[in-house]
Structures are given as structure tokens and as C-alpha cells.
Write a structure and sequence with these properties.
This protein is of the alpha/beta class. Helix content is 40%, strand content 21%. The protein has two domains: 2-120, Response regulator (Rossmann fold); 126-220, Arc Repressor Mutant, subunit A, CATH 1.10.10.10. It has helices at 10-22, 33-42, 59-68, 84-93, 105-119, 152-163, 171-179, 188-204, and strands spanning 2-6, 26-30, 47-50, 75-79, 97-100, 126-129, 132-135, 140-143, 146-147, 169-170, 210-213, 217-220, 238-240. The radius of gyration is 19 Å and the shape is globular. The modification 4-aspartylphosphate is found at residue 51.
């Protein structure tokens, strides 16, 4: 999962980023409200974790601005402010959760995962497609009950495909999710990752879930299910396996 951390304090940002990365999140960090709005408009984040006290505009205003712009990214407030009025204001503005410092890293991780699951329409921590299961909490992948070992990049790609099951994802979307626009390799690396991921899933008995949409990207779907893509696209050729 890709997270936008909005935190002006360098020490706190490093500490929070360390906790998130240990939990398996990919983290981009900005320290101002205007930068946060710009990043939310430019990239498709699974969650924004935001302090209220920012140097240019407060977190409430960032949430209001993003909601007016119809940006769907859910927001978790992470703040030193524990007054009930602050929490009420955050929720009324459009925040999805509120965590106060000091926090327990396991609780923060659990709350983040719960928000992302709800935002994607999942009530349980396990994502499924055919015989494939992926647990967001433990980052474990199973096919018919047997574990499948994936590298970090392979897991992130599979997680993204499952969270957006039935949607065609472009190679640019994968690159942005994996590298956040920083030190991005050539686009063909996505083909390499997908190829290796397919081979591992095929050996485990789930090799037909990821389809290639020629000229567009890749889509994960349950067997015999359909997929969605922009209405303007036509004459699309799909290859499975």
C-alpha cells in the first residue's frame, strides 16, 4: 500500500516512516499542506496520514480542499492534539480516523489497514480471487492453503492488482505505486515483475488470474469474470496467462 505522510517535524516524520515501512507500506513524505494537496492530485494514494499543525495551512484545510476537489484518498489524522473538539472537527471535515501521539505502532498499522480495506470495499483483511488469498495484515499469500513466497516488489504488485480487481492498471500506475516518481527504472521492468509473479502463481495453481490488456496494461480478475476500463477504449485485445 502506498501512503502519503504529511508531517512538518523531521524527527517525527522519520520515526513514523520507519514504523510504516516496517509494516510493509510504501511511504512518500511532504511537510506542507500545499505539497500534500499537490501530491494527492498527482498520485493515487491508498491513504494519507496527516498532522493537523502544518506550516502553511492546517490539516483541516487540506482535507476540505481535497474533498472539494473530489479526491478519494482516505485521511488518518496523526496528531499531538487530543482534545475532543479537535477530533470532532477532523471527522466533520472528512477525516476517516484520528490517532493521537504517543501511539502504539501496531495499533496505528491496524487502523491504517482497516481504513484502506473499508475504502476498497473490503470488511475483512483477506483479499481473494479464485484460489488466491492475500492477507493485508500479515502480507501472506496463499493458493489453496499453500504459501507462495514473493519478493517485496512482487507482493506490492499483486496487492495493487487485488485491491483494484477487475480494473486495468497501466505500467505507469505500477511504476508510480512502486517508486513514487523517484529513481524510476524503465517501464519494461513491470513486464519482468509480472512475468515472475505469473510463474510463481502458475506453479501454485493460480496462473490464469492476471491478464494482459494489449496497449494498456494488466488486470487481475476471478476466473470467468469481466474487467472494466475507460469507456473511450475500444478494440482491446486481452491475453491471459
Amino acid at each position: 500500500m502506498r501512503i502519503l505522510l504529511v508531517e512538518p517535524n523531521a524527527r517525527k516524520a522519520q520515526e513514523t516512516t520507519r514504523h510504516m515501512e516496517r509494516a510493509g507500506f510504501t511511504v512518500d513524505h511532504v511537510d506542507t499542506g500545499h505539497d500534500a494537496v499537490g501530491m494527492l492530485k498527482s498520485y493515487n494514494y491508498d491513504l494519507a496520514v496527516m498532522d493537523i499543525c502544518l506550516p502553511d495551512m492546517d490539516g483541516y484545510e487540506v482535507i476540505r480542499t481535497s474533498r472539494v476537489a473530489r479526491l478519494p484518498t482516505p485521511v488518518l489524522i496523526l496528531s499531538d492534539e487530543n482534545a475532543p473538539t479537535a477530533k470532532v472537527k477532523a471527522f466533520s471535515t472528512g477525516a476517516d480516523d484520528y490517532v493521537t501521539r504517543p501511539y502504539e505502532s501496531m495499533e496505528l498499522t491496524a487502523r491504517m489497514q482497516a481504513i484502506v480495506r473499508r475504502s476498497k470495499g473490503y470488511s475483512e483483511p483477506t483479499l481473494r480471487a479464485g484460489p488466491l488469498e492475500l492477507c493485508l495484515d500479515s502480507r501472506e499469500v496463499r493458493v489453496r492453503g499453500s504459501s507462495v513466497h514473493l519478493t517485496g516488489k512482487e507482493y506490492v504488485i499483486l496487492e495493487l492488482l487485488l485491491l483494484r480487481k477487475g480494473m486495468v492498471l497501466t505500467k505507469d500506475a505500477f511504476l508510480n505505486h512502486l517508486y513514487g516518481g523517484m529513481d524510476e527504472p524503465e517501464m519494461k521492468i513491470i513486464d519482468v515483475f509480472i512475468c515472475k509473479l505469473r510463474k510463481k502463481l502458475q506453479l501454485a495453481g493460480a496462473g490464469q488470474l492476471i491478464s494482459t490488456v494489449w496497449g494498456q496494461g494488466y488486470v487481475l480478475r476471478d476466473e470467468n469474470s469481466s474487467f472494466t476500463m475507460p469507456a473511450s477504449e475500444s478494440a482491446i485485445h486481452v491475453r491471459t496467462g
